[in-house]
Amino acid sequence: MKLKQGGKSELAFVGSLFLLGAIIFWDTWRKVPPELNLTISPKVFPYGIASLLMFLSAALAIQVLRGDVATPEGEEQGAVIEKSDYKTFGLVLGSILAFLLLIERAGFVIAASVTFFGITVAFDNKRHLRSAIGGTIFITIVYFAFTQFLNVQLPAGIFERSK
Amino acid sequence: MSSFNALMEGFASALTWSNLAFGLLGTFLGTLVGVLPGIGPALAIALLLPITYTVSPASALIMFAAIYYGAMYGGSTTSILLNTPGESGSIITALEGNKMARRGRAGAALATAAIGSFIAGTIATAILAFTAPSIADLAIQVGSADYVALMLVAFTTVSSLLGASQIRGFIALSIGLSLGLVGADLQSGLTRLTFGSDAAMEGIETVPVIVAIFALGEALYLASRAKEKGWNVIPMKGKALMSRDDLKRSWKPWIRGTFLGFPLGVVPAGGSEVPTFLSYSVEKKLSKHPEEFGHGAIEGVAGPEAANNANAAGALVPLLALGLPTSATAAVILVAFQTYQIQPGPTLFLTNGALIWTLIASLFIGNALLLILNLPLVRLWVQLLRIPRPYLFAGIVTFALLGAYAANTSIFDVQVAIVIGVVGFLFRRFGMPITPLILGLILGPNLELQFRRALQISAGDYSTLWATPLSKILYIVLFLALSAPLISRLMKKVRHKAIK
To answer: Structure pTM?
Structure first.
């Protein structure tokens, strides 16, 4: 049987959802609830949700095998699904991860500026210098607006000691 | 007329200079973010949540009401000029309004959308003000078992009616429910799904999930489709004004849209998609110019826009009176309430009466500010549509990450946000709706709490779950909603007809 375009990747996705259900089931099973006189054990809901998730993803997998492949958001049903652009995707994801790594080490201004710049590069902006400078100025304004006017704390990072 | 007096007091506390300033700022920021392409009201509010973290509850609420209406207004501007609806309720506006704009009638389309939203918002808020307290009075008698049934109905309708496939909707819901399980169980202290992480013990925060699933998910999805071309902004000629003839053709659709939208917001009917499509087909049937529909008929913008706004106000009824959100936007508002330590529900009018009336008064004020501010400023908002895509996405993503981090200054929240961002990407790629996930995460823990409470009272007798008349009715509704493939086939017909 030949799958429709996009079917294989969707099966992998649905399979991982089934696995998630199985993990929830296993995690619930291995836990020992405290000896309390509870009418409803804290395991009832996790078991229920895990079973539901496994049942539904199995049912969806059957649907996909039968040819009901998902329509990506914003596409017409039956339209040819274009191949994903993993280079741009990777750049955006990398820029987001950079924020995670830098926020508490280097501070908000540096972390957010790196993320900002990375995403402009990913979305094919040609003027790198302009976006780097513009982005950093924008982020710095945001930083001061939040910390000074709105009293929202953001890490100063490497600029902290110079204060 | 105690509601009336309470409302007047609400106006008194909302109409201070500093609160008005917050209202203006909220209108401005709400429109600013809402007008950005691809950002619907739910995300706009979530992105702006950090701004309200440190102001006083009353000021935060008025700002927040202004953001809410501003974001809705901004969204329709983008739909008309750019044909990129930020949420399902704006699809029709994009469809018909964009056609009007192409015919050089952008000004009239924007004006009918703005004035229609204002009128619908005002009428609907008035109905809200006078019905929500009495519904809350009734709701105090609603027991735990009824709540269980209510939540199950909300889950089912939202999962079945949104998106193309029922099963995908329910999968999205189960994932949301799973996220809601994470952390230490409040009753027994049993840790669930933490896998040894201390930070996960307190559960998963909703703010990072919401900003991530909308903003990061969208950015990643568009990145994977980066070859797509940019946007085509339709130049606007003249002012955002309507002719006498436009007004004559608009006012009836405004009123009809309002009365279609409000009740469908009160009952969990799966958000604003159904009422806007219904309003569109009603207007098409009643119109003297049915041939114009699909080519830019002003009634096709006026009715659905009014329905969309009235629907949003209608959704506040179950939210305020029962603590039950029925759309993504309502869910975000619930989260916003919780950040100010306010728990919506039947007792809300008793415990936080003054604050709620301030909020309702703020809705009126926000709506009025919007009309005064935005019709003249529309050219400024149009300029925003010219921001190059790379800058736009960079700004959205960094703001989303800021929001995720600043909620609790927690690095764990950023980790959660990134994982959820990837989930949001996968959901878009594989056609899964997002709203059920958000409702599952927010209501899941509540469902478990009420379920246990009901069974504790009955000492473990499960028949208590369907013992009351209300719960019996609700389970019948649930059954009907489950047979929704039938209804959704009907919806497709309506939609098909509407688009033809």
So the answer is: 0.88
